[in-house]
Design goal:
- The structure holds two protein chains of two kinds.
- Chain A has three domains: 198 residues, 3-Layer(aba) Sandwich (Rossmann fold); 87 residues, Helix Hairpins (Orthogonal Bundle), CATH 1.10.287.1770; 362 residues, no CATH class.
- Chain A is an alpha/beta fold.
- Chain A has a seven-stranded mixed beta sheet with strand order 2-3-4-1-5-6-8, sandwiched between helices. A two-stranded antiparallel sheet of chain A has the order 7-9.
- Helices cover 66% and strands 8% of the residues of chain A.
- In chain A, helix 6 packs across helix 13 and helix 27 packs antiparallel against helix 28.
- The radius of gyration of chain A is 28 Å and the shape is elongated.
- Chain A has 30 helices and ten strands.
- Chain B has one domain: Ferrous iron transport protein A (FeoA) (SH3 type barrels), CATH 2.30.30.
- By secondary structure, chain B is of the alpha+beta class.
- Chain B contains three helices and six strands, in the order H-E-E-H-E-E-E-H-E.
- In chain B, a hairpin with a 2-residue loop joins strand 4 and strand 5.
- The longest helix of chain B has 9 residues.
- Chain B starts with a helix and ends with a strand.
- Chain B has a six-stranded antiparallel beta sheet with strand order 1-6-2-3-4-5.
- The chains are: A alpha/beta, B alpha+beta.
- Chains A and B meet through helix 13, helix 18 and strand 10 of A and helix 2 and strand 5 of B.
- Strand 10 of chain A pairs antiparallel with strand 5 of chain B.
- Bound molecules: guanosine-5'-triphosphate (GTP).
- Guanosine-5'-triphosphate binds next to helix 2 and helix 5 of chain A.
Chain lengths: 682, 86
Amino acid sequence: MANCHGSSNRKQHRHRHQGAAKAPAQVQFSDRHRRLVLVGNPNVGKSVIFNALTGAYVTVSNYPGTTVEVTHGHLSVDNVVFDVIDTPGMYDLIPITEEERVTRTLLLNERPDVVVHVVDAKNLDRMLPLTLQLIEADLPLILAVNMLDEAKATGLSINLGLLESRLGIPVVGTISTQNVGLDELKQAIVQYHRSCHCAGGASVQHSIYDPEITAALNQISSLLERDYQVSKRTIAMLLLAGDEEITRQIGETEANAAEINRLVAQTAANYGQPLNFILAMQRQAAVQAIVDEAVSETGNGHARWVHLLNQATINPWTGIPLLLLVLYFGLYKFVGEFGAGTIVDLIEANMFEERINPWVNNFVENLIPWPLWQNLLVHDYGIITLGIRYAVAIILPIVGTFFLAFSIIEDSGYLPRIALLLDRVFKRMGLNGRAVIPMTLGFGCGTMATMVTRTLETRRERLLATILLALAIPCSAQLGVILGLLSGAPRALALWAVLMVGVLLLVGFLATKVIPGEQPGFCLEVPPLRLPKLSNIVSKTLTRMQWYFLEVLPLFVLASVIIWAADLIGLFDWLINAITPLVQALGLPAEVAVAFLFGFFRRDYGAAGLYDLQQAGTLTTNQLLVAAITLTLFVPCIAQFAMMWKERGWKVAVGIIAFVIPFAFTVGYLLNLILTTFGVVL
Amino acid sequence: MAVNALTNTYTPSGHFSLAELPVHTKARICSLADPTGKDLQKLLVFGLLPGRSVEILQRYPAIVVQVGRTTIALDEQVAAKVIVKV
Ligand SMILES: Nc1nc2c(ncn2[C@@H]2O[C@H](COP(=O)(O)OP(=O)(O)OP(=O)(O)O)[C@@H](O)[C@H]2O)c(=O)[nH]1
């Protein structure tokens, strides 16, 4: 009864799990609840299904020991409560990126009660090999064949019953965006647990590989002595495929490791090609046999205009102008003008300046008689009047509009198209098209983007992307304020943009020369263009905003407190005095030193400080440009620094800072020098 | 243009890498050159496997191919590893 996971069995497993000498990190599951894990390729509709199963109350947390996000929620059906986890997309049990590794660790170590594998009905031949791997692993599996509407539109008809009997696991057809099949999926989930599905999953897994591989799998399995959370056959398969992590782990923990390695080497020697390739080919053949039976083509119903639009987005002659249009409307008009302009004015000027600040100042002054403590809360640098005001009135509208625009672009399937259009540009910077996701996200929040560099394949790429994010990619809050600052001076704004792109390319180019390493190839799926789904966009935007706000608000409060304390003991004045000459060397008035100092707490904080100065009319356009450039290049905010530290280690983080600060000031200095020498007045 | 340079060596029955094919060519994958490392893993998961038919949709700025119902973008480095027969 390979597929049975009765409750007594489960307790033993958990017990053993905790008793193990080196217990792997665990997600914080509540013990009372059953665990349901959603897995599948990227872009198959996992998030939509997750939202439909769990409703509104979702938390996003980092997987222990990593910064990869795992989304949790609750599903309750017939009084049974499940902890539902949405995992980062994965293609295969052998991971390519860190994110995929997290999903695998979760599957291999956590013993979920039910695993739902979500697949795209259009591409069953490509998706089912993972299903076979999951069946092989003895995971309690349900297959959700999603996007049946798209499959039908392209002329495919799928026999789900046949699929179910061939695979020996429950199969549910869904169209998650139209709420079709989700009730059946819920039922399958509860029933899975209650009735313990013991169909012929076992039979399919014994016909996947050829006799020689099957024999090797059996032999290796019988040599494995420890207990595993998944089948020994899967461990054996991963060993044959040459998975580094598992091979190392087995080498350290299994008594028969030497014998196992010998078997692996012997099997490999019998095939002319690497075993992971052979294994994949055999799984593919097994899948093809199933798909040939279960899927039939009933003609091709692709709409002509969809095809044309698709072409237009990837052809460089039409694609690049389209991309510029998307950036212009999405970033400049929507985030820059609407978010950073209209909404900020509304909240900042109409609410805070006119109503909240005077009222709060007054209230606190009456409540607390000592000016010292009043200053902690209100007045120039107070927690409420500075910290919370900046966070709520200036930053939140900007990142909010950015995340909204980003979610729409993401959900429509447009991001991979940007990736393929810009692949060659990214290659110049030692990256490839894949980097488009962290890099564009960097225009939203550099901290989040630094975290998302996890989706890049090599250490070198992650390092390069981290450097560029720290230096030359302004986050949306900063961008918004800078657009606001320079909007009155279009020439300065253009110059700023040109300089930033130049610095980005130059530093990227130089960094590839300094940091050696191989460049991984670019290969990416281009999903069909889809009409974004409102609820999906809203939930993605809100999740990101929640993350941002929780991360940002405490920092703003902290920054206010530090500034207050530093002001109190005179440290603040001392620091300002210390950097004033630097600032003056850039041809800027001394007041700008304050904005720069704030900038260390958050880049946007500094930019917002400049905004105040500009409002007061203290800066010329030349000075604004120099200040804006220096500040954009300047240190990433404290949170991004912390994330760099966490992700890349302290040496790299400190190294980047040591490069970025002098670099920013040098560029500012040179710019000022050039402007003054040639008498340019912007 | 890359395609013109290639037409010299282009023979309908020959074997080529995916990186060498002109736009709109249809071909069948026969093998994967140098099938090691991460590039191979990528080809496998995207379904660029021996036996599958591919069509080149576009060559620049990235090579775009259709395999079954999947559209895949790849660069020359990866495409060079896919050996096809026209
Ligand atoms: N037509 C159709 N579109 C769908 C269906 N399910 C999801 N989508 C769309 O497919 C896209 C991807 O869905 P997501 O839920 O974000 O996919 P995901 O698997 O979570 O992707 P990642 O977040 O990249 O891992 C979105 O634009 C959805 O609206 C479906 O059943 N039919």
